[in-house]
């Protein structure tokens, strides 16, 4: 199974970046081919239909191609103002205009790390909406990591054993789910 793993978090010290690296490692250790992407590679302007008429920006095409070449998605997204990260929503809006639609029929596992005690869950619920609307089979379980500023050691490893075990189980379960979805295609 080929997985595209990324976070729309751009800050170098983002705990969502640390979380997606951990999740990608678990997926790889369990047989998945993982393409761990840096969202900076997908730099794109705000969606504008006039720009689209001139052709899709290169960052949009790069993102769409990486999605298209994957069976599933591991996404660790920050929560911005109780909702979806704006740059990720913008990327979804751009990619949704490509035909054939690259997200349609893919599977996804949503994760979030946040300094809040609820771990970004409100943003994950908002992130599900456009993904499911575009035909993504979003895993029913989502992983949230609250108080993430204290959750990692200096090497970027999760310090709490319960968090490690939960993340590992969730990624392994997602791989089974993702394989089932890929076999339906």
Instruction: Report the CATH C-level class.
Output: Alpha Beta
Name given to the CATH homologous superfamily: Flavodoxin domain
Total count of strands: 6
Oligomer: single chain
Spans of 5+ residues with little confidence (pLDDT < 50)? none
CATH topology: Rossmann fold
Mean of residue pLDDT values: 96
Instruction: Measure the end-to-end span.
Output: 13 Å
What is the helix content?
Answer: 40-55%
Q: Outline, from the CA principal axes?
A: globular
- Report the biggest beta sheet as strand number plus sense, adding barrel if it closes: 6 strands, parallel
Broad structural category: alpha/beta
Secondary-structure arrangement, i.e. CATH architecture: 3-Layer(aba) Sandwich
> What value does the Rg take, in angstroms?
16 Å
Along the chain, the helix and strand elements come as EHEHHEHEHEEH
The structural domain count equals 1
Count of DSSP H/I helices: 6
What amount of the residues lies in strands? 5-15%
Give the SSE map.
Blueprint: E1 2-6, H1 15-29, E2 33-36, H2 49-54, H3 58-68, E3 72-76, H4 86-95, E4 107-113, H5 121-133, E5 137-138, E6 143-145, H6 161-184
Parallel strand pairs: 1-2, 1-3, 3-4, 4-5, 4-6
């Amino acid at each position: 199974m080929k997985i595209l793993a990324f976070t729309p978090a751009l800050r170098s010290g983002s705990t969502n970046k640390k979380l997606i690296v951990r999740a990608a490692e678990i997926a790889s250790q369990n047989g998945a081919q993982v393409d761990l992407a840096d969202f900076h590679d997908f730099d794109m302007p705000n969606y504008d239909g006039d720009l689209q008429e001139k052709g899709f920006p290169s960052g949009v095409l790069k993102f769409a191609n990486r999605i298209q070449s994957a069976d599933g998605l591991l996404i660790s997204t920050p929560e911005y103002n109780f909702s979806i990260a704006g740059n990720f929503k913008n990327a979804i809006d751009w990619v949704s205009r490509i035909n054939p639609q690259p997200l349609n029929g893919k599977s996804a596992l949503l994760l979030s790390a946040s300094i809040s005690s609820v771990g970004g869950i409100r943003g994950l619920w908002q992130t599900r909406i456009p993904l499911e609307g575009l035909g993504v089979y979003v895993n029913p379980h989502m992983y949230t990591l609250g108080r993430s500023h204290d959750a990692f050691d200096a090497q970027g490893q999760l310090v709490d054993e319960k968090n490690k075990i939960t993340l590992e189980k969730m990624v392994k379960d997602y791989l089974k789910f993702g394989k089932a979805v890929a076999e339906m295609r």
